[in-house]
Amino acid sequence: MAAGVISCGAEYTPKPKGFNRIDLPQQTYQPLQEAHPYTFEYSTHAKIRPDSSGIAQPHWINIIYPSLGANVQLTYKDIQGSNDQVLNNLVEDARKLTAKHQIKAYAIEESQIKVPTGDIAAVFELEGEVPSQFQFYVTDSSKHFLRGALYFRTATQNDSLAPVIEFVKKDIVHLLNTLKWK
């Protein structure tokens, strides 16, 4: 009874609503060391792992950000010696995979980046509660085709992930700007 009397006399101050603090590391990069028909620089805070899915093909990799719960899936296709229809099909597949997010996306903004190799990268930024907020593909139109998609292994709302999404998007743009075909 004494505890009840004492506790009733204490003033209660509610805590204000708070937001998770996301401390992002400084963006630094390292060259890809694995033997692939491409090379680029990627974040020193990420790890490269081969794609272990059942449909994985050679040179498919994941760039995993363990501390951020993010994953950039890269798929590669060798198109050397193929006809133009093969490249057209790959581009169309990349667009279809992006379009599958239209159900939950508020907007899908497509832009193009001219990378230092002279190739054009198509970049798709998706807004809304979508599983992949950033996707891209780049090709030299004769030998190589590389597609990428950013995913998070969390149920956190995308507006809460916004700083992390922007952080990884900068890393992806850096990847595209340092991409070289072998």
TrEMBL record:
Alphabetical keyword list: Lipoprotein
Pfam families, per database record: GldD_lipo
InterPro entries: GldD-like
NCBIfam families xref list: GldD_lipo (TIGR03512)
Name used for this protein in its record: Gliding motility lipoprotein GldD
